[in-house]
DNA sequence: CGCCAGGGCCTCA
DNA sequence: TGAGGCCATGGC
């Protein structure tokens, strides 16, 4: 029965380092934040198209994002889906970033930073943790649908455990290390995409031996 | 064709 | 405070 670290090592051995988060333009921090919003319940391939549109129009900038109309912004991010909602969310986020510059956010501790981010309409728990971990590079474990699915099937968490509870489970069982958190989440996504799909492919799954296969 | 994807907000008990 | 409805495109 491997613990969280044992599972991490197995995934790392199988998939190798993931080097998340994929960044395509120069202003990587802002791009990561925008991507974190656009990827909400959306395949990353669609997010890439939307970010490609924004990048082509030099929109990866606080000033440009502030000046563009919401309708126009929505049309540019159309491939990522939910484009009306997401355009409004992005507007909220850049307004927040204007009032709370990155250099200021960088000084905050994770707890207050998280609380602050969650105050923005459009940033929920997973998006907040993604921004803290991948954009600001502070240790805050990201829990997503994949995380819950995999660790429920393995038998380490229960269906009724909420976001904060699952997050605590990981953070209390792992070294408080930004790179470990980053890599672990990336490896979880990789496992979910390749094996632990909604309809699981258990054969040759790296965690096959210590999985309870609950459904 | 139907299913699904790196959620979050709003509403209504 | 928790479940349910809603948002939407593109890949397979």
Explain this structure to me?
There is one protein chain. The chain has 12 helices and no strands. Helix 2 crosses helix 3. The longest helix is centred in the middle third of the chain and has 17 residues. It is globular and about 55 Å long. About 30% of the residues are buried. The protein binds a DNA duplex (13 and 12 nucleotides) through helix 3, helix 6, helix 9, helix 10 and helix 12.
Detail the topology: elements first, then pairings:
Blueprint: H1 4-15, H2 28-38, H3 44-56, H4 62-67, H5 70-76, H6 83-99, H7 102-105, H8 110-118, H9 125-135, H10 145-154, H11 163-173, H12 178-194
The structure holds a DNA duplex (13 and 12 nucleotides).
Summarize the amount of helix as a percent range.
55-70%
Order of helices and strands: HHHHHHHHHHHH
Provide the β-strand percentage band. under 5%
Silhouette: globular
Structural class: mainly alpha
Number of strands: 0
Low-confidence region ranges: none
Terminal residue distance: 19 Å
The rounded Rg comes to 18 Å
Keywords:
DNA-binding, 12 helices, 215 residues
What's a quick, concise take on this entry?
With 215 residues, the chain is mainly alpha-helical. Helix content is 60%, strand content 0%.
